[in-house]
Structure formats: structure tokens, C-alpha cells
Request: fold
Amino acid sequence: MLTALLFITDILETARELYFVVQVMTFAYMLFWLYMTFRDAQLLFGVGAIAAGYIIFLHGLSFTLLAIFFLAFVVMGSQIQMLMWFGLMPLFGYQQAGDRFVNVKEAEEQQQQQEAMKQQVMQRIMEGSASAEEKQYFVNEHASSGLEVGDTDALRGGRGRRG
Amino acid sequence: MAVILFLEDVFQILEYVKWVILFYIAWWYYSWSKEHLAFSPLLTLVVGAILVYFLVIEHPIIGGLGVLGWVLLTSGVLYLVPVVGSLYNTFFGKKMR
Reply:
């Protein structure tokens, strides 16, 4: 029990030290920016440095979170987007398809189902037992080929082309 | 016996490599400090010392991961990640119908 507690204190200690390091780095960034901004006005640089130190070391958490958000979404945003679109989602079986992600397996199954249904309807049309709805479905499927409802009867004679 | 001697040599070399890596990490953090606080040599030294103390002496693994992560992110090599998947799909994946 005691060793477990010591372990947790170790982790907390490490976290605290790393947090301090992050604060120092953030402060360094701020100082650099302040120096570049107020290079010709040393008084402003001094006041700004004190203000930055106060904000970063006394209100560190919110400021650090802000810096992290900025880094993550502004500086690294395109990297994250690339990683999600082309790295992470394909790993889970999704592909980027313009305005959405498409599950590759589901899309393939759907395509196979549609293919099977088309075959069935085609079969019925050939046999002459297709309903008007099924004929309409077939025509819709082949809308680009200029097929019309009346033409489905021609299929029975074997003159229709397979679409 | 000879195998053990051989292993000792390997460990010795690994030890040297470890020190080289540690020196590289320390140099990287110090030059970070130099780049960002070029206007003040004293601040450069102070911040550099803090970074090297905490990220190399105290927590060398975390410091090393920091360097590695930053180099990975800024090098643009992550843009090559999708290439792996697309190459795999092109040559070994299912044929598209």
C-alpha cells in the first residue's frame, strides 16, 4: 500500500516538474515575442515581461491549455486532419469520400446486394413476371442509358442490353 | 566465455550510444533556448540549464520523446503515413470492381 502511494507521488512529482518545464518554455516563447514586438520600447518590454511572468506562472493552467489548443489546432491542424483522414480512419476501415467517410466493407456489401437485386429484377422482367414497380426500379437503375418503362418489355425478346 | 566478452563489447557500445544520444538531446534543448532567447545570454543560460536539468538529467526518456515527437511533427514525415496504406491497397489490397 505504502509503495503504491510512493509510486503515485513519484508520478505527481514528475508531472509537476514537467509542468514547470512547460511553463518555462511558454515564458521563453512569450519573452521572445515581447522582445520582437517592443524592441524599440524597453519599458514596454519590461512591463510585458512581468505581466507575462505573472500570467504564466500564477495562472499557468489556463494559459498553458490555451497554448496547447493553439499548437494543436492552428499550428498542427493540417497534420491532424491528414492523420485522421488518411491514417486513422482507413485503419478503422473508413475511406474519405468527399463530404463523409465510407465504410469500405459496408459499401461493398451494399453494392453486392444491389447487384443481386438487379439480377433478380432482370430475371423477372425476362420471365415477364415483373411488377410495374420492379420495372420502374430497373429503369431508374439504368436512367443514364436512356431506357424507358416500355423498353423493359423488349428485354423479354432478348434485344435489351445488359446495363 | 567468448560470448560473454562479445556481449560486454555490445553493451559498451550501447553505453556510448546512450551518452551520444543524451548529449544530442541536451544540445537540442540548449539550442532551443539559444534560438528563443537570443536577446539575452543570461536568460539563454538559465532556461537552457532548466531544460537540460529536467529533461536530460532528471527525465531523459521524456526529454528524448519530446525531441523525437517534435522532429516527427515538424519534419513533415507524417504526410507519408497515408502512402503506406495506399501502396498496400494498390499492390496487395482487394481489386476494385
Summary: The first strand of chain A starts at residue 94 and ends at 96. Strands of chain A lie at 94-96, 101-103. The first helix of chain A runs from residue 2 to 37. The helical segments of chain A are 2-37, 42-58, 60-75, 77-91, 104-127, 132-141, 152-156.
